[in-house]
Amino acid sequence: MVQLTEELIEAFNALRIVPLATADKNGVPNVAPMGAKGIADPRTILIMNNFMQKTLANVKENPKAAVYIWGEGVKGCYQIKGDVEYVDEGEQFEAFRADVKARMPHVPAHGMLKITITEVYNCAAGPAAGDRIL
Predict the structure, then answer these.
(1) pLDDT at 63
(2) What 3-state DSSP class applies to 62?
(3) Which domains occur in the chain, in start order?
(4) Strand 44-49's sheet: what is its strand order?
(5) Taking the CA atoms of the chain, what radius of gyration do you get in angstroms?
(6) What pTM value is reported for the model?
(7) What pLDDT score does 73 carry?
(8) What is the distance between the alpha carbons of residues 58 and 127, in angstroms, rounded to a whole number?
(9) Residue 2's Cα: distance from chain center in Å?
């Protein structure tokens, strides 16, 4: 099972917004900015559903997603891929919802994407671009 390293967790947490890529059952892609995000554990990323339309429709048809980690304060460039489960009840959801609402009281926090990490790739320019690192 793939687990994020401390360096990858720091990189994810350093960014206020991360792009989340999904695709429908026909492979039509969608990328949307996500700010209500967190790491549940080294194998799991959580993203709150506040105003998802295409993203939610896509993961219901095709439960796969990728998160892009690059920007100011990040050492390196990473693409994290995973399997997605939509969750809108339970202890983990309620805890994440409370955390998101404390930081962003204006968001509806309808449900969350629970992304189980399956692969991590290097996306920095150079000879190792595209290499799987986890």
Answers:
(1) 98
(2) coil
(3) 6-122 (2.30.110.10)
(4) 29-34, 18-23, 64-69, 78-87, 111-122, 44-49, 37-41
(5) 14
(6) 0.96
(7) 87
(8) 33
(9) 15
